[in-house]
Amino acid sequence: MAAAYLDARLKGKDFLTLADFSTEEIRLFLDAAHELKKELKAGIPHPVLKGKTLGMIFHKPSTRTRVSFEVGMYQLGGYPLFLSAQELQLRRGESVGDTARTLSRYLDGIMIRTFAQEDLEELAAYASIPVINGLTDLVHPTQALADIMTVEEHKGKLHGLKLAFIGDGNNVAHSLLHICAKVGMKMVIACPAGYEPDPRVMAEAQADAAKTGASLEVIEDPAAAVKEADVVYTDLWASMGQEGEQEARRRVFSRYQVNSALLRNAAPDVIVLHCLPAHRGEEITDEVMDGPHSVVFEEAENRLHMHKAIMALVMQ
Ligand code: CP
Ligand code: NVA
Q1: What phi, psi does 170 have (nearest 5°)?
Q2: Which end of the chain is more exposed for a tag (fewer CB within 10 A), N or C?
């Protein structure tokens, strides 16, 4: 008998951005991830993708995403194939479309980490198998789902909670906006002028927020953003691809550090999340990263359980 969490509604779907999923579908991913985590901890095998293969294309470095998808596919009974973009014919000019059509003949799913969202969309348009976004410059949807799973584990609920995001209005912030809107959370982003989230993402999230009772706000003052927050989140000041801006960003963002003084404005039982990798001493201090409010390594662990849920649901 198929596992109860293997709801067929998501079968065959691409996973490109959380904007494409309904609140009910987000729930399916969360429920499956919680179940798969329980089963793994209990030593119950779940080879639900036995005999299937996932190709993983990386145009950018990765520790967590690569290892958790690779190990996750193995735990689901399938075979993961790491494909460095540097070693594919893509690097020598083979088109994204021809690559997608070829890979679709061998594989059951593709996970890709790349730069432009449009490249991901092109791959998905030509592929006849599900394509999963492992991070683009625009969004990081697998991350935000694992983050919200972590919040749910700690708080026992999602609706009505306040998440403060301190830093750049980047890909991680974008996916958090999408998901907070879908699950009815309050999200406040504190960022310097000029580093606000993309207006199109904001508009997509606002449309959902109007339906779920979520509220989304962008301000400049980190202390005001953190006020009574249940969750405080931060990410690198300079994302992959922005290495040239690192010095300039260090100056612009110096006020946007998650440290003990800032956390004192938050709810007493606040949890601190960071997608990692962290630049300790920049966007987050050692004291907070290693302190009692930090759940960053559980969050990293939950990438494994959530990625398994995503693969199981779309590649079943
Ligand atoms: N958070 C995250 O995606 O980490 P990696 O870049 O190590 O995959
Ligand atoms: N915003 C970061 C996230 C890394 C997981 C980046 O894109 O580099």
Answers
A1: -105, -165
A2: N
Q: Is 65 in the pocket of ligand 1 (CB under 6 A)?
A: yes
Q: Which two structure tokens, joined as six digits, stand for 147?
A: 């983050």
Is 143 one of the catalytic residues? yes
Residues 102 and 64 in one domain: yes
In Å, what is the CA distance from 52 to each residue of 44, 45, 48, 163, 270? 20, 16, 9, 37, 40
Residue at 3 is within a domain: no
Which protein residue has the closest C-alpha to ligand 2 atom 2?
Answer: 239
CATH classification of the domain holding 200? 3.40.50.1370
Domain count, the chain: 2
Q: What is the tens place of the pLDDT at every residue in 208-249? A: 999 999 999 999 999 999 999 999 999 999 999 999 999 999
pTM exceeding the 0.85 threshold for the entire prediction: yes
**Where in the sequence is the domain holding 48, given as residue range(s)?**
8-139+303-315
